[in-house]
Amino acid sequence: MPAVPYHRLLQARSIYASPLGSLHLGATADTLAGAWFEPQKYFSVDELDGVPVDPTHPVLKQAALALDRYFAGEELQNPPLTFVEGSPFQQRVWHALVGIPQGHTSSYGALAHALGCPGGARAIGMAVSRNPISLFVPCHRVVGARQQLTGYAGGLDRKIALLELEHALVSEKKPALFDA
Asked: Which of 3.30.390, 3.30.9, 2.60.40, 3.30.160 would CATH assign to domain 6-72?
């Protein structure tokens, strides 16, 4: 039996006008299940065809308010989240991303080690790149082994802007999370 297409699991969507461009939000009945920049690798706005636009949906309103505060410099407060797609491994990685606090970063290798997958930095990177809830599941906080800024599905310029907003650009004074 084929899997239910992702967009069919969403009950409402909206578009948030962020300072970094349009951010498409998707919600189930009571959780945020998607947040994608336009354009974003691995996402096409066409995937949301048929999902009703409803910016008054309670979860979407909560997400928009959280984003307003975030872009004003406050800590991002997540609405209830759910992963309606992804393998168990991907979901495990995405849950770990939520644990990277604002103002900090982690490397792919350190994240792999923390998840009990030493040597699994590439697999972590693939899971991170498929994160369906950008910003709220902060994949932009993951950097390369030498703390270099690597790809971001929403674009490297956005990743840099987000890390600058969070004062999380890696420096010698502030070690990355999970690093020894």
From this structure: 3.30.160
